[in-house]
Amino acid sequence: MADDETTTNETKGPAKDAGRGIGGFAAGVIFGALIGAGIALMFAPERGDKTRRRLRRRLERLREGTAEGLERTSARTRRDLARQRRRLEAGLERAADRARDAL
Asked: Which of 56, 54, 25, 51 is nearest to 40 (CA)?
Protein backbone atom coordinates (compact mmCIF):
# COMPACT_ATOMS: atom_id res chain seq x y z
CA MET A 1 0.00 0.00 0.00
CA ALA A 2 2.81 2.42 0.76
CA ASP A 3 4.16 1.92 -2.75
CA ASP A 4 0.79 2.84 -4.27
CA GLU A 5 0.67 6.12 -2.32
CA THR A 6 4.20 7.04 -3.37
CA THR A 7 3.44 6.40 -7.03
CA THR A 8 0.27 8.49 -6.86
CA ASN A 9 2.08 11.41 -5.21
CA GLU A 10 4.95 11.25 -7.72
CA THR A 11 2.63 11.53 -10.73
CA LYS A 12 0.80 14.50 -9.28
CA GLY A 13 3.98 16.34 -8.30
CA PRO A 14 5.61 16.82 -11.75
CA ALA A 15 2.29 17.65 -13.41
CA LYS A 16 1.65 20.26 -10.74
CA ASP A 17 5.18 21.71 -11.13
CA ALA A 18 4.90 21.88 -14.94
CA GLY A 19 2.50 24.83 -14.77
CA ARG A 20 4.83 26.71 -12.47
CA GLY A 21 7.81 25.77 -14.62
CA ILE A 22 6.47 27.60 -17.67
CA GLY A 23 5.62 30.70 -15.64
CA GLY A 24 8.97 30.53 -13.90
CA PHE A 25 10.74 30.17 -17.22
CA ALA A 26 8.93 33.19 -18.67
CA ALA A 27 9.73 35.23 -15.57
CA GLY A 28 13.37 34.17 -15.84
CA VAL A 29 13.53 35.20 -19.49
CA ILE A 30 12.03 38.61 -18.74
CA PHE A 31 14.27 39.11 -15.72
CA GLY A 32 17.32 38.08 -17.73
CA ALA A 33 16.44 40.47 -20.55
CA LEU A 34 16.11 43.35 -18.07
CA ILE A 35 19.41 42.51 -16.42
CA GLY A 36 21.11 42.22 -19.82
CA ALA A 37 19.71 45.57 -20.99
CA GLY A 38 20.90 47.24 -17.80
CA ILE A 39 24.39 45.82 -18.14
CA ALA A 40 24.52 46.82 -21.81
CA LEU A 41 23.60 50.39 -20.91
CA MET A 42 26.22 50.55 -18.16
CA PHE A 43 29.00 49.26 -20.41
CA ALA A 44 28.03 51.06 -23.63
CA PRO A 45 31.18 52.70 -25.07
CA GLU A 46 29.43 55.87 -26.27
CA ARG A 47 26.21 57.80 -26.00
CA GLY A 48 23.28 56.61 -28.09
CA ASP A 49 23.32 59.50 -30.57
CA LYS A 50 27.02 58.95 -31.30
CA THR A 51 26.47 55.23 -31.76
CA ARG A 52 23.51 55.80 -34.09
CA ARG A 53 25.51 58.33 -36.13
CA ARG A 54 28.43 55.92 -36.41
CA LEU A 55 26.10 53.07 -37.46
CA ARG A 56 24.40 55.32 -40.02
CA ARG A 57 27.78 56.20 -41.58
CA ARG A 58 28.87 52.56 -41.66
CA LEU A 59 25.60 51.52 -43.27
CA GLU A 60 25.93 54.29 -45.86
CA ARG A 61 29.47 53.15 -46.74
CA LEU A 62 28.26 49.56 -46.92
CA ARG A 63 25.40 50.59 -49.20
CA GLU A 64 27.75 52.56 -51.47
CA GLY A 65 30.24 49.70 -51.57
CA THR A 66 27.49 47.25 -52.40
CA ALA A 67 26.16 49.49 -55.17
CA GLU A 68 29.67 49.83 -56.65
CA GLY A 69 30.19 46.08 -56.45
CA LEU A 70 26.87 45.45 -58.19
CA GLU A 71 27.77 47.92 -60.94
CA ARG A 72 31.15 46.24 -61.50
CA THR A 73 29.55 42.81 -61.51
CA SER A 74 26.80 43.82 -63.90
CA ALA A 75 29.32 45.44 -66.27
CA ARG A 76 31.45 42.29 -66.20
CA THR A 77 28.35 40.15 -66.80
CA ARG A 78 27.29 42.31 -69.76
CA ARG A 79 30.80 41.99 -71.26
CA ASP A 80 30.80 38.23 -70.76
CA LEU A 81 27.33 37.88 -72.27
CA ALA A 82 28.31 40.00 -75.29
CA ARG A 83 31.42 37.82 -75.77
CA GLN A 84 29.36 34.64 -75.51
CA ARG A 85 26.80 36.04 -77.94
CA ARG A 86 29.52 36.85 -80.50
CA ARG A 87 30.93 33.33 -80.11
CA LEU A 88 27.47 31.79 -80.53
CA GLU A 89 26.70 33.92 -83.59
CA ALA A 90 30.06 32.98 -85.13
CA GLY A 91 29.36 29.30 -84.45
CA LEU A 92 25.90 29.58 -85.99
CA GLU A 93 27.37 31.24 -89.10
CA ARG A 94 29.94 28.46 -89.43
CA ALA A 95 27.21 25.85 -89.04
CA ALA A 96 25.05 27.62 -91.63
CA ASP A 97 28.02 27.77 -94.04
CA ARG A 98 28.69 24.05 -93.57
CA ALA A 99 25.00 23.27 -94.13
CA ARG A 100 24.99 25.31 -97.37
CA ASP A 101 28.16 23.61 -98.52
CA ALA A 102 26.70 20.19 -97.77
CA LEU A 103 23.65 20.87 -99.90
From this structure: 51
